[in-house]
Amino acid sequence: MNGAESLIRTLTGAGVEVCFANPGTSEMHFVAALDRVGGVRCVLGLFEGVVTGAADGYARMADKPASTLLHLGPGLANGLANLHNARRANIPMVNIVGDHATYHKRYDAPLTSDVEGVARPFSDWVLTSANSRSVARDGAAAIAAAMTPPGRIATLILPADTSWKEGDGPAPLPSVEKRAAVSPDKVAEAARLLRSGEPTVLFLSGPALREPGLTLAGRIAASTGARLLAQTHNSRVERGAGRVAVEFLPYPVDEALSALADARHLLLVGSKAPVAFFAYPDKPSELSPPDCAVRTLATPEEDVTQALEALAEELNARGTAVPVQTRETPLATADKVTSGAAAAVVGAQLPENAIVVEEALTAASGFISGTQGAAPHDYLQLTGGAIGIGLPLATGAAIACPDRKVVCLQADGSAMYTVQALWTQAREGLDVTTIILDNRSYAILKGELANVGAGSTGRKADDMMELDRPALDWVFIARGMGVEAGRAETMEEFNRLLATGLSSQGPYLIDLLL
Amino acid sequence: MNGAESLIRTLTGAGVEVCFANPGTSEMHFVAALDRVGGVRCVLGLFEGVVTGAADGYARMADKPASTLLHLGPGLANGLANLHNARRANIPMVNIVGDHATYHKRYDAPLTSDVEGVARPFSDWVLTSANSRSVARDGAAAIAAAMTPPGRIATLILPADTSWKEGDGPAPLPSVEKRAAVSPDKVAEAARLLRSGEPTVLFLSGPALREPGLTLAGRIAASTGARLLAQTHNSRVERGAGRVAVEFLPYPVDEALSALADARHLLLVGSKAPVAFFAYPDKPSELSPPDCAVRTLATPEEDVTQALEALAEELNARGTAVPVQTRETPLATADKVTSGAAAAVVGAQLPENAIVVEEALTAASGFISGTQGAAPHDYLQLTGGAIGIGLPLATGAAIACPDRKVVCLQADGSAMYTVQALWTQAREGLDVTTIILDNRSYAILKGELANVGAGSTGRKADDMMELDRPALDWVFIARGMGVEAGRAETMEEFNRLLATGLSSQGPYLIDLLL
Q: What's the rounded Cα separation, in Å, for the pair A222 and A208?
């Protein structure tokens, strides 16, 4: 058994079932071993940003560690932006990155680079395997590192000869760190604060936005008068009709400041203290008011659900009745195509138990409200701000949940970064309906230009934000990659095409002209 | 004048005329200043790998420093693979990378990352501007660093507030290091070696492959019996009818070993000692035979052309008659579509003074021979092995040379990595004819799988190398990005479509089904 085989057996032994891949020469022994070993489904992406983004989407929905296979420093580099997003989503991910054979590196062949250096800025754990005997053990350590709460990015670099030389057989998974329980003192302090009667916000993220956590948070809020608020961007929110409703902190700084203006206490529950996404001249970086005390019930690393259970217990709120979201089917009143009207249509048509992937940027808040009373669904967001995640994320989510419909709400500019994901959706026959929110511009930048006070612009600056010369034809682009597609220029067309997409098996793309 | 303006004025003062860009919020003051300042043409790419690859192509053809504008760590990360290639091509390039405002970084907002850490593996020079007063001086230092021989990658990180606060006005370019002259001793030693009569190879790259260098090398070879050989991959080769012909060292290890088997001396002229691209079990990493002495006439950093002049002088070869390549129009004999037949057609139709960008991978050697006797042209190759450079490189070359036809010989799998470049070609109306060598597979990996001895494969491994399920439709993809296109399934069709592409103004794409 060579090193590559011993590594694959180690991965499957630890529960890794899918590997998202874009391999090259140095990974050929790993690739060849896939058929001999079995147990790993290998999903090809035609660009590495697709690979890492899909791995992220898979892990979010499968609640299992994701794995990727990438080729040398440049291949890893191509996947870094979505690794950044995955890291901000606290995803457990193991990246296997091939490198030149150990003895070949000193010749500085053209594809040589400092692979560890490339990995480090977006990895929590980096190791280069020394030889084929250590590869399995290193792989097991990588998985354990990835599974360390709250979920981490582990990058294992595999010189080619560590794959092709004789290995030592699979290695067992070392003991994996568990989420630490929150101390009774912290719970008691949070309870005191909630009993004070002063305006308090439970600021939620991570497991606090999954159904059990959210229900507990809802009971606590109902029994104390506290307000629930989700982080602006979250890995996964279980929401919709029948679930505890939660608003999201808005992205624009002024709106975020307003949303928090009345709070005197902010209790962090699996979240981080709210800060502005960017700095703007004369606006604060911290979003909570100066006279608001920020305290932590549970860090992202801690056992967030246990902390909420203990807090509900302390407050005698475990049996408190909690109001849930009612099913609301917004009426599509407008004929005019807007993202708001589109959000209403999506909210109305969204099937039970769908997965909504949202990289809608300027249209995001409209879709968040438009789907609030939709059938129960999971809502996955862009966690790290590196655009180009939507199509890959939807791809990975569909791999994880083949029986659920995935709806991808996708800004046009961002879609271009990892457009190759459409091909993987076609190849794997994934049940993804993509809605391109086609405003033919980097609309968010127009707002940001004003927000940062950069002054008036001329033709050159405008050209950096307008994508209409020429307009992208998303129907052609989708068909070029094997995905059926249609264009909607009216709300009636959008209604009809969305029904087509949602009722078809396999990928479908709607180019919604805004 | 704010920091951004002072920086742009510094860039234009130092001769920077084009900036390839994909900006975001942190770069909005830079973008807004473009219209106020003037003098910089700003070219938008819809993905950062397009931006860095186009900057590379521009610098290769303009012989001027290239500049890019990128957004934070993830934006830079997206551009790294083509920065790797540019670095291996010894390109002078200044990357301006926006970052969060200095005071905002400590809040660890979602898009925060270690931008210097991201830059370092593929940059020769990295600096974060401390404040708006130092930005212009830092920019001047970045240009000087980029122009240091043989051409370097300089990355200047610009926290947002260093752009928007008051600057100190433009800074002058500090003195730029020149290529060092090669010592008379080294020239004399090379002359002795060439006079020995033992089989000697002049191994050429960099300026030795531009017309003046190549002519001198040809005279030296003609007067001493030495053989000329170019590196396998080069930034730019001036070749074709009327110029000194030079073969390229083959990529496959066995062919490379054969090509060098008889050499007893290898004289490096702007090149590096030849090594295998990858390691293969039981094959050597060094490609020159054990009994061949490798000596250096001029390193890539030194004045390669001056060294060749001095050597020709020393050998009394400055007036030696040098045979040049005759115009050869290969006959397209085959009806069957092959890359070899396509190469003959390209060789026959290539217009005078064209720029050929080649990322043909498995078809590369066929195109090198097929165009050897074509009309004189420049030939630009993939220097660093990070695939996905062809379309961007062609884009940048066309920006640099608006009066010349660019022909891009592009493997299909590689084309997908930076396919967004087609949109920039359409927007800028660039005169690029792209030929997609559409074999619907990562053909090179099939060969590599055998070369590394990875054994037999099954369905899973094969799926990592086959792109035919579904087949990409390149005509749709091109039209989706605003580029006119046609499909060739016979040599007759290819002949006709190539004539159409070459005679049209603006971009055109041919999907050549192999």
A: 16
Cα dihedral A120/A122/A125/A127 (nearest 10): -40
The C-alpha angle A100, A103, A107, rounded to 5 degrees, equals 75
Q: Does B482 touch chain A (CB under 8 A)?
A: yes
Tens digit of pLDDT for each residue in A203-222? 999 999 999 999 999 999 99
Cβ neighbours of residue A73 closer than 8 Å, sequence gap 6 or more: A99, A111, A112, A113, A114, A115, A118, B84, B121
B13 falls within a domain = yes
Of chain A, the end-to-end C-alpha distance in Å amounts to 57
Task: Please report, to the nearest 10 degrees, the dihedral formed by the alpha carbons of residues B487, B493, B498, B499 taken in order.
Answer: -130
Question: Span B362-368, mean pLDDT?
Answer: 94
Q: How far is CA A499 from the centre of its chain?
A: 26
Write out the two tokens for B172.
């002058």
Determine whether the interchain pair A461/B34 forms a contact, defined as Cβ–Cβ distance below 8 Å. Answer: yes
| DSSP characters over B252-310 | SHHHHHHHHTT-SEEEEES----B-SS--TTS-SB-S-TT-EEEEEE-TTB-HHHHHHH
Looking at the fold, whether A123 and A267 belong to one and the same domain comes out as: no
* B178 falls within a domain: no
Q: What is the pLDDT of residues B384-394, one digit of tens each?
A: 999 999 999 99
Quick one: pLDDT at residue B394?
98
Angle, helices B339-349/B491-503, rounded to nearest 10 degrees? 40
The alpha carbon of residue A403 is apart from the nearest alpha carbon of chain B, in Å, by 22
Same domain? B239 vs B360:
no
Q: CA-to-CA distance for B278 and B285, rounded, in angstroms?
A: 8
B376 in any annotated domain = yes
Which of B164, B194, B219 is where one domain is finished?
Answer: B164
Q: What is B177-207 written as a DSSP string?
A: PPPBPPPHHHHHHHHHHHHT-S-EEEEE-GG
pLDDT bucket at B450, cuts 50 / 70 / 90: confident
Are A227 and A310 members of one domain? yes
Do B356 and B488 lie in one domain? The reply is yes
- Chain A window 276-315: which residues touch B at a Cβ cutoff of 8 Å? 276-279, 281, 285-286
Domain presence at residue B107: yes
pLDDT tier, A478 (very low <50, low <70, confident <90, very high otherwise): very high
Residue B13 shares a structural domain with residue B115: yes
Q: Does A413 touch chain B (CB under 8 A)?
A: yes
Tens digit of each residue's pLDDT (9 = 90 or more) over B18-36: 999 999 999 999 999 988 9
Q: What residue in A sits closest to B287 (Cα-Cα)?
A: A107
Residues B188 and B245 grouped into a single domain: yes
Residue B418 has pLDDT above 90, yes or no: yes
- Cα A425 to the center of its chain, rounded Å: 17
pTM given for the model:
0.98
Contact with chain A for residue B505, Cβ under 8 A: no
Backbone angles phi, psi at A156, to 5 degrees: -110, 120
Do both A489 and A349 map to the same domain?
yes
Residue B330 has pLDDT above 80, yes or no: no
Are residues A357 and A498 both part of a single domain? yes
Total domains present in chain B: 3
Q: Which residue of A has its CA nearest to B475?
A: A480
* Residue B453 pLDDT grade (very low, low, confident, very high; cuts 50, 70, 90): confident
* Rounded-to-10 torsion of CA A384, A385, A386, A392: 70
Q: Which residues of chain B make contact with A463, given a CB cutoff of 8 A?
A: 42, 44
Bridge partners of B433, per DSSP, are: B407, B508
- Residue A311, both tokens: 């807090």
> Are the CB atoms for B352 and B376 separated by under 8 Å?
yes
What is the domain extent for residue B241?
A: 184-314
